[in-house]
Amino acid sequence: MKKAIILLCITILFLPLAACSNKGSKPSERKESEFDIKAATNVINSYMRYLMKEDQKSIQSLYSEDLKKEIKDVAQGDLKIKGYYISDNNEIGRSGQFKIKVTRVNENAPVSTLEEYVIKVIKDGAEYKISEVKSIADKEAFSEGNTLRLKSKDEVKTSLLLDCSGLPSYAYESSDKARMDKKPVPKDKFNNMVFSYRGDKIAICTYDKNSYIGIVTIESSQSTQAQPSGGEGKDEQTGGQTGKQGESGTKAREKPIGKNCTSLDILTQSKVEFMSFSQDEKYLVAQYIKSNAGRCIKVYKAEGGEALPLDFEESYPLGKVEIIFSSFDKEYMYFEVIPKGAADASTTQLIGKYELKLKDNKISKT
């Protein structure tokens, strides 16, 4: 009898332990089959960076087998992706849906677009693959004569963003800390531009032999149009284009939707190739070509237009090497130092990939 009671007590004691053991194994089993949104986010970041580099082989490697069959050509054409920002993500079962703001730039013409990518990532076995890519047009800016115009979504009408008369006539080089020598702003033609991810700002550039860089704030309501004044038709702060003729015979001016323009810099003997905002829109990088030297970058604070205290032209032997922007993430800007022309033993140690920590302006080789 005593033995039976002892066995019963032992059984009662071990039953909860066994149950706990079984319960403890379930999370690990579940974990293997769960969808990891962080892993999917890493795939999205890799995908967008490959797009910016136009690395076709790596882009294809992230597609699901079904999507590979549908996408034959992944070339971007004239409009190149120069920046992105993941604005939202949702986990749906064993898949994730990501919304990404994407800026495109034409390096050879003053054209920029802002669109939203909607990308679906699935878990295929142990791997995460992109199974669907959609895009929704948001904004488009382009030049028309000596003006910039803006088109929103699928609207037919366009709005005047600004014309050259709305630009300042003179501006300082960012290196002129004493603010002694104002340089004339080139007004002959617009060079290139890029939207911020919210679409409320656009960085613009004009060019002759020098480049002017500024950031224009866009009115939240783009429906602002000039009304026939029947009179003088005074200039707005960012200029105005001659519009239809009023009753008095004078011509009214179309009111621009650009509210103000913050001057960032005048780059002498340089042409801007493209620009890109950081993901938090606090910084702007300009990739430019300096005459008889090569490609370099400059980074600015978007608010106020102050250049970061980093002189890439002085820090690296421009002419022997070139500095190339790669991408932004939440905390860093990435760039590369590559040889210009034939290999030079004196620059071997400098060649490579770097990261700039935006918070404290520290540069590290990766």
Structure description:
The protein folds into two domains: 37-138, Roll (Nuclear Transport Factor 2, Chain: A); 145-365, no CATH class. 29% of the residues are buried. 18% of the residues lie in helices and 45% in strands. It is an alpha+beta fold. It has helices at residues 2-33, 37-53, 56-61, 65-70, 312-315, and strands at 79-92, 95-106, 111-124, 127-144, 147-152, 159-163, 170-171, 183-184, 190-195, 201-207, 211-218, 241-245, 251-254, 258-267, 270-277, 283-290, 294-301, 321-328, 332-339, 352-357, 362-365. The strands form six sheets. A six-stranded antiparallel beta sheet has the order 1-2-3-4-5-6. It has a four-stranded antiparallel beta sheet with strand order 9-10-11-14, with no helix packed on it. The chain has a four-stranded antiparallel beta sheet with strand order 18-19-20-21, covered by helices on one side.
Per-chain topology:
Layout: H1 2-33, H2 37-53, H3 56-61, H4 65-70, E1 79-92, E2 95-106, E3 111-124, E4 127-144, E5 147-152, E6 159-163, E7 170-171, E8 183-184, E9 190-195, E10 201-207, E11 211-218, E12 241-245, E13 251-254, E14 258-267, E15 270-277, E16 283-290, E17 294-301, H5 312-315, E18 321-328, E19 332-339, E20 352-357, E21 362-365
Antiparallel strand pairs: 1-2, 2-3, 3-4, 4-5, 5-6, 7-8, 9-10, 10-11, 11-14, 12-13, 15-16, 16-17, 18-19, 19-20, 20-21
